[in-house]
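Quick one, tokens below:
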């Protein structure tokens, strides 16, 4: 018999009321609260507690950005040599607060270049990319738990791949396409169960799709555009859609009526049609990155090549851009990609 099952959550309070009190704790306090007793720890780390907080409206909806890190003052170099280093920034649109997630221990000086980032049940998942020192592709998977403020190493991706599509559905992360270490476009796809830390292979797409983009619409994982091995840079107008109900892919023609790379700039309009954020407004025509956040979209980009980054919120689909005015200097760098996370 487990005596912890009989320990009251909060002495003197009914269980339902005690649960509501704990539900209202800010996620940043969970790390300390989990040390109170075993029952609190099991509760705070449980899947059911996360979904209870989500259903009762006590989660925080934030944009997680893979963003270039500022050059430290006092650097001997006037300009950095090589590509910039990237870290994870977190923006809360309600409070307007910006924050930085601690570096991945294996990459203390910056994330793998071109890594993919998505979220699952309040956790941040970073996978793939290039080693920032050797430029070799990596299979690494890292999971960040906001409530413990710690990274853990996940099970490596089964294949080397870069510039692939990724998206989350039902606690699982789907990946597809990209290219291998020999720059061959891939048609293979896998799904990662974040809680079980296991990978499973999916059926293949109808063709290889390098530099494609993943978008989740309802219960479907869309792999937008991309190009084949022999057609470098000639982006497809088609997409492939993985349906959870059938576990099969279906091809959608004329889904991406844009000739440019869909990376980080695919939006979904009121009519359900996909569009390019870079073509939606001249202020983000270069390096646009759009992150749909449930009722609003975080949008960043520049008006011209080499221009300063602009940061905006778009209320509703295809709504008017509202500039985020108070952006701290250390969070003003280029946003390579990002995802929505409900913490």
């Amino acid at each position: 018999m487990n005596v912890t099952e009989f320990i009251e959550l909060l002495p003197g309070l009914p269980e339902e009321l005690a649960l509501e009190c704990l539900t209202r704790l800010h996620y940043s306090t969970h790390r300390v609260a989990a040390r109170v007793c075993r029952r609190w720890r099991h509760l705070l780390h449980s899947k059911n507690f996360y979904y209870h907080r989500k259903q009762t409206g006590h989660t925080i909806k934030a944009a997680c950005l893979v963003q270039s890190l500022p050059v430290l003052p006092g650097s001997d170099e006037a300009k950095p040599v090589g590509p910039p280093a990237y870290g994870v920034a977190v923006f809360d649109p309600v409070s307007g607060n910006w924050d930085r997630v601690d570096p991945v221990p294996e990459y203390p000086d910056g994330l793998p270049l071109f890594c993919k980032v998505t979220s699952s049940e309040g956790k941040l998942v970073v996978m793939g990319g290039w080693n920032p020192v050797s430029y070799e592709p990596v299979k690494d998977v890292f999971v960040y738990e906001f409530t413990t403020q710690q990274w853990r190493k996940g099970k490596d991706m089964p294949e080397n791949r870069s510039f692939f599509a990724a998206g989350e559905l039902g606690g699982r992360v789907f990946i597809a396409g990209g290219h291998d270490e020999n720059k061959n476009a891939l048609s293979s796809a896998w799904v990662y169960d974040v809680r079980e830390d296991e990978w499973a292979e999916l059926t293949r797409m109808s063709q290889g799709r390098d530099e494609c983009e993943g978008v989740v619409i309802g219960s479907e994982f869309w792999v937008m555009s991309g190009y084949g091995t022999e057609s470098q840079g000639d982006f497809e107008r088609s997409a492939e859609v993985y349906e959870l109900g059938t576990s099969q892919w279906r091809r959608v023609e004329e889904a991406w009526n844009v000739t440019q790379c869909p990376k980080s700039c695919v939006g979904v309009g009121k009519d359900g049609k996909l569009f390019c954020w870079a073509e939606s407004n001249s202020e983000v025509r270069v390096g646009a990155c759009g992150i749909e956040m449930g009722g609003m979209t975080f949008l960043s980009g520049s008006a011209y090549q080499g221009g300063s980054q602009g940061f905006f919120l778009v209320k509703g689909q295809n709504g008017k851009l509202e500039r985020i005015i108070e952006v701290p200097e250390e969070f003003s760098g280029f946003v390579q990609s990002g995802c929505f996370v409900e913490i």
